[in-house]
Pyridoxal phosphate homeostasis protein (Pedobacter psychrodurus), 233 residues
Amino acid sequence: MSIADNLKQYKSEVGSDGVKLIAVSKTQSVESILEAYNAGQRIFGENHVQEMVDKQAQLPNDIEWHLIGHLQSNKVKYIAPFVKLIHGVDSLKLLQEINKQAAKNKRLIDCLLQVYIADEDTKFGLGFDEVIELLRAEALAELKNIRIVGLMGIATNTKNEKQITTEFHELKVFFEGIKVSFFRKDDAFKEISTGMSADYKIAIEEGSTMVRIGSSIFGKRVIKHFKNDITTN
């Protein structure tokens, strides 16, 4: 099946639940992304900063770019002029840097707090108690150029669907508590970004509003690795 055919399948399946489809375009060529764009896709997710910067310069301006990988503070400045949503925010320090760079660009940048829900040491994210501590911080109220619009989580990489379901469910329950406690009057706080190719159906059942699908749309492709290309100045 073509990229367009794959997209049509996922859009019909995901869209019927009111869930946003993020086409994960990391390691995919500009041509492949353009094929998806011409098939109607507008939201694309990248893991690495320079890869997203390079592609953004070559592709249509109405694309909504999401940074879904782990973001270092010293690289925020490169994506601040255009990024729509940063998924993996895991510290007040990072929020402060995003706010600083957003202000320089006269923008408001939406962010998701990444919550650690997996039973794996390799995953990033805040513990439930750390999310609450961050939201209570006086310094957070000073940040006028960022907006926290929800939570993001990555489940354990396992075939145990019961475990995945439990992890996603716990995040949904936590989201609802955070909404009541901190964002009761904030309509923008509404997103739960969970679910990838292997577990998106479970994620949607457990309240996800965004799913991240990559190789199932584009097929497998490996190109230049961008992770360390941008300098750390």
